[in-house]
TrEMBL record:
The keyword Transferase applies. Keywords: Methyltransferase, Transferase. It comes from Tunturiibacter gelidiferens. This is Homocysteine S-methyltransferase. Its EC number is 2.1.1.10.
Length: 646
């Protein structure tokens, strides 16, 4: 035996050829997040998750089994932080070997079990994360010391050789190329025959956190001896896709892509990833077409994501022509079949609104909120009034602000049947799982509803039943994907439903939100998922609308501006403070001068009229709300739309 790093014994690695097929260009699906699953099971984030291999092995084993049952072909050991530096933060620096060996054993048991029960091949990958310390010259840890720390972990991961230790190594979430190099050197010294996948994590611009470009990372990692290179975690699937597209032309190695489920958000004290499994699945196809052959999930992903990604990959493999896959040499390879033989009608043929949007005509809509009881005669009268005035469509919100009201779908049907005006159904993800969503949408199409506004939905805590359970199986982006699939005659499992649902697909936009970068990113995702036009939240500041339209120029779809006629100063204060709508001080001052209810209504109508006139040249339509069911106010705003305001 030769000496390894720091005088360590070189481990025999003969017989690792079984994992070679993972690197021959065929698409391979890896598992998703381990930490997310442990956290969901009540393990506090201040625990050492790697140590659970020793203290709670059944918990770790269950998670591995769930990923394998969901379709993963590769499971990573629960050893992301299994190096002496990270374990030392918990006083476990002497447990490196024990924790890593136990992690491999748990994953191996699950893989062997799935092989026996389902007669399918699966592999164990040793997860190696960053050391969690700064290396020289920025930190106190020397390069040789870092290399030895990686070698110590790798020796434990491959202990026992092929079939007992790991089948391959995945060095992931590397923030620095220098640190990634030390991990590769350690692997090549201790385990020269074991395949090594190395993935960097990047910022929102697609650059490594040490400043290196994606292209430089791919070139350097290739030179240093990685067997596959790529990107994981980061700012979600769109960012990782851009990195894969940049890496493909500069390396012939297999590419690995394992994005997290978008940027996490804090909701009621918990960290929530709102990107849906369906959205991740749609990007899985894009990643493969861009050249990635090793795909999986990172933070925020669960077995439901793995299952959706598996379904997406099966659909990709069954396509009939027209789908191009980027090869290692930069050339394109077409897959064999199309995803669906059903092509939805053109947008202009799906509905009146779709026709107007497609033709570039200016669309007028009025929002009518469903009643809290079973009598909707007032709402039907309001719709009839709007129809007589020539309004093009009625928008019907879906339990706005999480209030309990008549179903939007029911009111839409009654308006179309009794009034004859077209409706736009607001549809939220708050209250429904993916089964209910599909059932509702299939039913909506069958009874003549053809326009869907896809929304995530307000959380229940905003409504009159704050303890109600929220579902959020998908968010608005995932919902757009579901509706688009149905338009192509496919359910979320890519099974045929026989014909297209023929929906026009609208999404919401909030030009006045504080985090404009996030709003623009999500809007881009919605467009990518299949959105065909957008309806904004109420706009009171044209500068905000102009800035939003400028930011989305690269992926602009028709935008319909929301207009809300204020009724009083209190109403304006509510919009500004409770709903966080961007409200200029001059509008607040104008409403403050209205000393009577009638004066407040008139001033609100005048402001709304001004907003409409100013927005008209910039947008493709307007949605006017009828505050507190006052449809005459909406009529006044629209009746003044053609009058020049001085």
């Amino acid at each position: 035996m030769a000496d390894g790093v720091g005088g360590a014994e070189l481990v025999s690695v003969a017989g690792y050829g079984a994992a070679d097929r993972l690197f021959d260009g065929a698409t391979v699906l890896c598992d998703g997040a381990m930490g997310t699953m442990l956290y969901a099971r009540g393990v506090f984030i201040n625990r050492c998750y790697d140590e659970l291999n020793l203290s709670q092995p059944e918990l770790v084993r269950e998670i591995h089994a769930e990923y394998l049952q969901a379709g993963a072909e590769v499971v990573e050991t629960n050893t992301f932080g299994g190096n002496r530096f990270r374990l030392g933060q918990h006083g476990l620096q002497d447990q490196v070997r024990a924790i890593n060996v136990a992690g491999v054993k748990l994953a191996r048991e699950c893989v062997n079990q799935i092989r026996e029960k389902q007669a399918c091949e699966a592999f164990v990958a040793g997860s190696i994360g960053p050391l969690g310390v700064r290396l020289e010259p920025l930190g106190k840890v020397g390069l040789e010391e870092a290399q030895e720390a990686f070698a110590e972990q790798i020796r434990a991961l491959i202990e026992g050789g092929p079939g007992v230790g790991v089948d391959l190594l995945i060095v992931e979430t590397m923030t620095s190329l220098t640190e990634a190099e030390q991990a590769i050197l350690a692997a090549r010294s201790v385990a020269p025959g074991v395949r090594v996948v190395v993935m960097m994590t990047v910022d929102e611009d697609g650059n490594c956190l040490d400043g290196a470009s994606a292209e430089t990372a791919a070139i350097k990692l290739t030179e240093w001896g990685a067997d596959a290179v790529g990107c994981n975690c980061s700012a979600g699937p769109a960012t990782v896709l851009s990195v894969i597209e940049r890496m493909r032309p500069v390396t012939t190695l297999p590419l690995a892509a394992m994005p997290n489920a978008g940027i996490p958000r804090a909701v009621e004290g918990r960290t929530i990833y709102l990107t849906s499994p369906e959205y991740m699945a749609s990007f899985t196809r894009k990643l493969v077409k861009a050249g990635a052959s090793i795909v999986g999930g990172c933070c925020g992903t669960t077995p439901s994501y793995t299952r959706a990604m598996k379904s997406s990959l099966r659909a990709l493999g069954a396509m009939e022509g027209g789908i191009e896959v980027m090869q290692r040499d930069g050339t394109q390879k077409a897959a064999s079949q199309k995803e669906s033989k059903i092509v939805p009608p053109l947008l202009a043929e799906r509905s009146k609104i779709g026709s107007m949007v497609a033709a570039g005509e200016f669309v007028t809509m009025v929002e009518i909120v469903p009643p809290k009881g079973i009598d909707c005669s007032k709402e039907l009268d309001g719709a009839m009034q709007m129809h007589r005035l020539g309004v093009d469509a009625i928008n019907v919100p879906d339990s706005p602000r999480a209030s309990a009201r008549m179903s939007a779908q029911s009111l839409c049907v009654q308006i179309q049947q009794h009034v004859g005006i077209e409706t736009i159904l607001h549809y939220t993800c708050r209250d429904r799982n993916v089964l209910s969503i599909q059932s509702d949408l299939l039913g909506a199409s069958s009874i003549g509803l053809k326009n869907i506004l896809c929304l995530t939905g307000d959380p229940p805590k905003l409504g009159n039943y704050p303890n109600a359970t929220a579902v959020f199986d998908v968010d608005a982006i995932g919902l757009v994907n579901v509706v688009r699939n149905l338009n192509y005659g496919l359910d979320i499992g890519n099974n045929s439903i026989g014909e297209s649902t023929g929906f026009s697909i609208a999404v919401a936009a909030n030009p006045g939100v504080q985090d404009m970068d996030q709003e623009v990113r999500r809007f881009a995702f919605k467009v990518e998922a299949g959105a065909e036009y957008a309806i904004t939240q109420p706009v009171f500041d044209m500068r905000v609308l102009e800035e939003f339209l400028r930011r989305i120029e690269g992926f602009r779809i028709p935008v319909i501006a929301g207009i809300w006629p204020l009724t009083s100063l209190r109403n304006a204060e509510f919009m500004k403070n409770d709903l966080r709508v961007s409200m200029p001080d001059e509008i607040m001052a104008r409403m403050a001068t209205a000393l009577t209810p009638e004066a407040g209504r008139l001033e609100g109508v005048k402001i709304a009229q001004e907003m409409l006139a100013e927005a008209r040249p910039m947008v493709q339509g307007v949605q006017v709300s009828a505050p507190f069911g006052r449809y005459g106010v909406a009529a006044d705003v629209l009746g003044l739309a053609e009058v020049e305001v001085v």
